[in-house]
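Large ribosomal subunit protein uL4
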Amino acid sequence: MKVAVLDSKGKETGRKVELSDDVFGIEPNNHAVYLDVKQYLAHQRQGTHKSKERAEIAGSTRKIKKQKGTGTARAGSIKSPIFKGGGRIFGPRPRDYQQKLNKNVKRLARKSALSIKNKEKAIVVVEDFNFESPKTKDFIQVLRSLGLENKKSLFVLGDSNNNVYLSSRNLKRSEVVINSELSTYKILNNNNIVLFEGALAGIESNLTK
């Protein structure tokens, strides 16, 4: 599939690039997409949640009232979970949320996500550009030229470009990554994908190993 290459002003350059059908034109595998997104979200969790149980509560260990004759239930410790300020029953403990996923499944998921976006005509290819210095207004002008000013967009670079990255950092609806950082979640979490021309070779190489 051939796609026109645009410049940073949103105009056609007169050139076209070939998008590999093995990456951008496959039949999406929804289960692979689900597994990869699930893993990505799980890895965002710190797992540092913790509450104190009765053995960790600071408090007197004396028996707070006699065993019989009070007309109420027995109670042996002020740290009991049934009392205010007592420990928590089966509270959360620190844990690792990391999940394992086969590399082939991850590649299939990313190819599926790109194929979905390509089918929706939500992928744009632009020639590589740079800014003289990091300026948010310059990046906003690029978004406006591409018709993406009010849409969530993901820009995929071929190599690290500090000026472009810093220019986009203050914009909530735009994100800039290099091709090796591309993930299924980021692809699907944005309305449009803007691929730098220099990123295509890296994406196809990473996903067709």
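thats it. The first helix runs from residue 21 to 24. The chain has a mean pLDDT of 93. bye
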